Amino acid sequence: NIEASIPSESRQVWQKFGVKEFGGKDEFQQEFIRHVETTLARSIYNCDDLAAYQAASQAIRDRLIIAWNKTQQKHTTKDQKRVYYLSLEFLMGRAMDNAMLNAGIKDITKAGVADLGFKIEDLLEQEPDAALGNGGLGRLAACFIDSIASTNYPGWGYGLRYQYGIFKQRIVDGYQVESPDYWLTFSNPWEIPRYEIQIDVMFYGYTRKYTNDDGKVVHVWEGGEQVQAVAYDVPVPGYGTETTNNLRLWASKPTREFDFEKFNAGDYESSVRESQKAETISAVLYPNDNFYSGKELRLKQQYFWVAASLNDIIRRFKKTHRPWKEFPDQVAIQLNDTHPTLAVVELQRILVDMEGVEWDDAWKIVTNTFGYTNHTVLPEALEKWPVPLFQNLLPRHMEIIYDINLFFLQQVEKLFPKERELLARVSIIEESSPQQVRMAYLAIIGSHKVNGVAELHSELIKTTIFKDFVTIYGPDKFMNVTNGITPRRWLHQANPKLSDLIASKVGSYDFLKDLNLLKKIEPFAHDPKFQDEWVAIKKFNKARLAAHIKQYNGFDINIDALFDVQVKRIHEYKRQQMNIFGVIHRYLSIKAMTEKEKKEVTPRVCIFGGKSAPGYYMAKTIIKLINAVSEVVNADADVGDLLKVVFIADYNVSKAEIIIPASDISQHISTAGTEASGTSNMKFVLNGGLILGTVDGANIEITREVGENNIFLFGHLAESVEDLRHKHRFSKVPLDPNLEKVFEAIESGTFGDPNIYNSLVSSVTGSDYYLVSDDFQSYLDAQKLVDQDFKNKDTWVSRSITAVANMGFFSSDRAIDEYAESIWNVEPIAVE
Ligand code: T68
Asked: Which keywords does the record carry (predicted)?
């Protein structure tokens, strides 16, 4: 009994002086000033917005830590099964507003800083984004840990503490220029360094085996390079609950022995070099979205993070003194994509090599522990590590993979005798030169459930890339969990006015915990007063975005125009090129109009934003074209307010919070079958914008929920894509005539040197892999409908309200409940 071990006198002192929750704003102010004067060593005379942000966040962080401690104690005493979400990316964005909201101290803080001469909005702006992710996959992980806490599940996130998150993007002469993201410069109040939690991780070296006294063959791995993992804990507060879970991020440090010898021998330079080498492991996030590049340092990052996390999880399990076979009753581990798949091998290694568990028993434990989420069917995104590289870095893991593969193939052979081709197709080892380790296959074989992230995508993985595994395991191993988003950040924080208006009809803010309650606003879809308030809020949000554009892009936009937004990573499959070609078509049409015809045009502001991977030439060319078109169109007096084109630089989570609530239309126009789900589509609709999209990813389920009258769909279906591509490969398919005119304008130099766009244009005139030409007319037709419908303000607003009312399904709380129920088998725990 832990409590009894503390003498009662000590306990009384602890109780008397233990840190309490804020009773009111004066208690906040007292803590705020204490942090300014002591933590920051500043004073009333030099407390600027940055210092005020830091002091306020320290005060808020202290409250989070109380709840965090309580939660961890409760989870330890309850001793139930926990879930661990392993993700190389957590795209958290800013923490302060979310922390205040979830700790229920937003009003206190706001009033507290106001008395001291600060505006809370200005302080929030001081916080750099925690941008430890590329895009959808990383943001999904952030929404998921918010929901795991908000729905009271005992769950931790495990990731890497990158010193540099996703690069900052500037636009210079129309081109993307990258610079490092120095997000830790002013220290990070939202993390708790755990210098005492250090875990050694080994790379390289060699393996050896011997027979021990019991006649058992024992494998050892030794002689390699050692680095140390140090834990940094980030409290993750739930909304409307005391539960505050943990996100543990690992940083790499040199081990003590590592540099000690050289240092002692006076070889300071190489000792420093060695220690810097250790630190590079967690130094920087790889900036590729939906693309695999087989760099050794990336594999090092993966193993470093996986080894530290598993060691930590196992240490916690061992404290309960249970037998190993109960491990899957206590631990569920979700693999966010194949990036943490080494965990499968590492757990098998620990059980067999270190703990002496028999292979088959160990393998049962492993497969019952893991679940694998797939996020893409794009072949260029699937991880395949060259065997020589793998073997050199992780020699024992390579041996274990060979054994896993051998046992798996034996099992397949028994089930399907004589199907040699099948064996080659499903082997973890691809027989190329060099051979490659197919990480997705390893993840499937090592998990008890595999899921896709939207219905269509989950069907596609079963019928295309993982087809053979459905034959082998049967269909039950494969399932769908449609993605979701947290309504706390993506409605209440990003769009407080809309959240307040909804609350006035729902009767409370309970919809932030049970998003299906949004249904209650549907009866007001045609209520004139409600409509007016709805429209006024959209206008306010558009003005807020217009002010941002004025500040950063330097020009004015008309907030009565239709705001048409496409913000996401730049990728050919996401087809920003089709959008900008459509804009050029619109521009050419307006130029050809009489003044009378122009009066009928629906004014539009086309807003783009998104980063390109630094080495992705085609994506960078698309950015350049958008900026070139923007320059020409915005300066053209013939066009005036009828068309404006904006590229918002450095799209990130905090910019998304401003951009998304301001859209009338947002575009989600990937080639059918290529976007696994999309999650910003959900965010836009939740904020009252309508979608212009293809029949792809979660667009399909959004259509089902909001009704097909409340979305603009176009384009070929996924089922026709293969045939269309085939046609392009074997014959010359004529170019869409409108697209031809667009290309003529580009080639005639309307947007500057046409040579810049050669490859972009010929990718469409050639094989047109993404079917831009095939979908172009259908896209223009849908755009025309958007223009017409936007003129009818009454129907537009009722459609917007109806759509929002039916978005309940897309809460990440629902997604997490589904994972908990059908994959993790974990139960919530109330923390009072
Ligand atoms: C996205 N994937 C999907 N990947 O593209 C999107 N890739 O459809 C889906 O909604 C989202 O995941 C959540 O399920 C990504 O964002 C990456 O960012 C990525 C990162 C590293 C390597 C490969």
From this structure: Transferase
539 given a catalytic annotation: no
**Cis before 434 (ω within 30):** yes
Residue nearest to atom 13 of ligand 1 (CA): 137
Active site residue 668: no
Residue 31 to residues 46, 56, 61, Cα–Cα distance (Å): 17, 8, 11
Q: Which residue has the tokens 């270190």?
A: 354
Per the prediction, the chain carries an average pLDDT of 97
Q: 527-807 sits in which CATH class?
A: alpha beta
CATH superfamily of 79-94+129-482+820-824: Glycogen Phosphorylase B; (3.40.50.2000)
Residue 258 predicted with pLDDT over 60: no
| pLDDT value at residue 276 | 87
Pocket test for ligand 1, best of 132, 137, 166, 334 (most atoms within 8 A of CB): 137
User: Whose C-alpha lies nearest to ligand 1, atom 10?
Assistant: 678
Is 542 known to be catalytic?
Answer: no
CA distances from 299 to 88, 215, 296, 611, 614 (A): 11, 35, 5, 24, 20
Q: Is the CB of 679 under 6 A from ligand 1?
A: yes
Catalytic residue among 81, 585, 644, 683: 683
453 Cβ closer than 6 Å to some ligand 1 atom:
yes
> Does residue 289 have its Cβ closer than 6 Å to ligand 1?
yes
Question: Does an H or E element contain 619, and which?
Answer: helix 617-634
> How far, in Å, CA of 614 to CA of 22, rounded?
46
- Looking only at the bridges linking them, the beta strands covering 604-609 and 562-567 are parallel
* 683 flagged as catalytic: yes
Confidence of residue 256 (pLDDT cuts 50, 70, 90): confident
Q: Cα separation of 641 and 326, whole Å?
A: 67
Q: Of 61, 82, 449, 568, which one is the catalytic site residue?
A: 568
Assign 3-class secondary structure to 277-315.
HHHHCCCECCCCCCCCCCCHHHHHHHHHHHHHHHHHHHH
In angstroms, the CA 715 to CA 780 distance is 10
* Of the candidates 617, 831, 810, the residue with the CA atom closest to the CA atom of residue 705: 810
- Three-state DSSP at 32 gives helix
pLDDT at 1 over 70: no
Rounded to whole angstroms, how far apart are CA atoms 432 and 772?
33
410 is written with which tokens? 């034996």
pTM of the prediction?
0.98
User: How many Å apart are CA 342 and CA 348, to the nearest integer?
Assistant: 10
Half-sphere exposure (CA, 13 Å, Cβ side) for 217?
4
DSSP states along 382-400: S-EEEHHHHHHH-HHHHHH
Regarding the beta carbon of 135 and ligand 1, being less than 6 Å apart is answered yes
d(CA 567, CA 667): 8
- Angle CA(106)–CA(108)–CA(114) in degrees, nearest 5? 100
Cα distance between residue 746 and residue 590, in whole Å: 16
Distance (angstroms) between ligand 1 centre and the Cα of 465 equals 17
Domain boundary assignment for the chain: 79-94+129-482+820-824, 527-807
Contact 486, 812 (CB under 8 A): yes
User: Does residue 728 carry a catalytic annotation?
Assistant: no
Distance CA 205, CA 395 (A): 7
Is the predicted pLDDT of residue 363 greater than 70, yes or no?
A: yes
At 766-802, the pLDDT tens digits run 999 999 999 999 999 999 999 999 999 999 999 999 9
Q: Ligand 1 pocket: which of 86, 90, 132, 289 to mutate (most atoms <8 Å of CB)? A: 289
pLDDT tier for residue 272 given thresholds of 50, 70 and 90: confident
Do the first three CATH levels of 79-94+129-482+820-824 and 527-807 match, i.e. the same topology?
yes
For residue 483, the ligand 1 atom closest to its alpha carbon is 14
106 is catalytic: no
